[in-house]
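User: Can you recover a sequence for this backbone? Please restate the input before giving your answer.

Assistant: Of course. Working from this structure:
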């Protein structure tokens, strides 16, 4: 398996078609059929390929500052982590998470953050669930328009501390959209 880092603006039509097929295979009930992002383009992606250079794993990554209880934090957000159905349970998702952690600890990143419906994979890889009240920019996924500001507790937030800061409960302002 080979993992490549690809910036969003460098994705070819052929690669976009492979990403779209993998996203639809993994999230067909909720994912838009006409694009390779859900609400917003990620900054870059990690893509896992098999020995035949077929796409078998994907995760989008979004780097931004957020506000945690009045403190500025640097966050790398994970978006749409998925693995091809025919190669699941072979450690590919964990390999992508390890690659993200390696990338994060050598850069100016305080936390890795994600949303998970099923937390098992992330718990096994050192992530922890947090319960913060969050503020975010609501985006209508169908119309791709701003739909207001949300401010409430949302289940499924997980983080991994990769910098020198400790996470704290309280208010978290995403300063943008949810992943």
């Amino acid at each position: 398996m080979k993992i490549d880092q690809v910036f969003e603006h460098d994705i070819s039509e052929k690669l976009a078609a492979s990403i779209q097929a993998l996203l639809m295979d993994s999230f067909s009930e909720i994912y838009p059929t006409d694009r390779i992002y859900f609400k917003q383009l990620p900054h870059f992606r990690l893509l896992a390929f098999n020995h035949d250079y077929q796409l078998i794993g994907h995760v989008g990554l979004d780097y931004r500052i957020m506000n945690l209880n009045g403190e500025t934090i640097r966050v790398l957000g994970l978006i749409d982590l998925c693995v091809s159905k025919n190669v699941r349970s072979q450690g590919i998702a964990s390999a992508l998470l390890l690659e993200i952690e390696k990338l994060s600890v050598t850069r100016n990143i305080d936390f890795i953050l994600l949303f998970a419906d099923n937390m098992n994979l992330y718990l096994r890889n050192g992530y922890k669930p947090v319960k913060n009240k969050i503020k975010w920019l609501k985006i209508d996924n169908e119309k791709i328009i701003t739909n207001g500001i949300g401010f409430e507790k949302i289940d499924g937030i997980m983080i991994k501390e990769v910098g020198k800061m400790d996470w704290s409960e309280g208010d978290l302002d995403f300063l943008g959209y949810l992943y």
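That completes the design. The two ends are 27 Å apart (CA to CA).
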